[in-house]
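PROTEIN DATA CARD
Card holder: Carboxypeptidase regulatory-like domain-containing protein
Chain length: 253
Origin: Gemmatimonas aurantiaca
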Amino acid sequence: MVPIHSIQSRLVCLAASCVLLGAGNVDAQILRGTARTQGSDRPIENARITALLTDGRGVGATTTDDRGRFHLRVSSSGAPFVVTVTRLGMRPTTSNSIMAGERDTLDVDFNVHEEGIVTDTMKVVAAPRLNEIRLQEAKRRGWKVFSPIEIAETRERVNSFEDLLRSTGYPGLIISPRRDDCIRSTRLNRCITVVVDGVPLSGTNPLINPRDVYFMAVLSPSQAQLQFGERAFYGALVVYTRAYGDKYERDRH
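Structure generated from the sequence above:
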């Protein structure tokens, strides 16, 4: 279980200096000013500035620009009102009650305190690697699998891919000592298709470095045709190569 900390910001109005400057628009107050973080004095962009009467009715709203500045027209008819500052991901904060004449213009500056809040813990699960998924799928489909641990115990001691196949002791394959011959099935004595990382290969014995092999699987003719079509009519030998980060643990299932 890993605690994940998300940073939300609580807006705290530390200072709201309201200075009467003079007459403004008829039957409306004008509020202008900035919203900035405390300490760093960083402007708060796209914050919602809203004027509310004491009964909760909205009497004006605007949004700060990229410099944290705003210009708000308030129609309170001389009644007291408050100003709230909110932004997505932040908790709203409300100023003290403001009294102003119907045509006054006020300067209002907000200092904002950012505070980290700890959220509920979350369980983070890593996604399985591609070769782990391939191995699970091969087992699910009923293929004859030579597991990563079997391959890892042998591949460093053999000199060729053919020697790696022989080391498995599997009786269903005929591995010719000739490089120009193919790998055959003992059941049909026909060449089977070699598939490397999902790509069927043409030709005879492929040149595969045994140290590159992660796991292998043998497919019957029906399994191979279902998976690869007529390109693997007589069966298939599937080879998956190693990738960075692969594990070589014994099968725990």
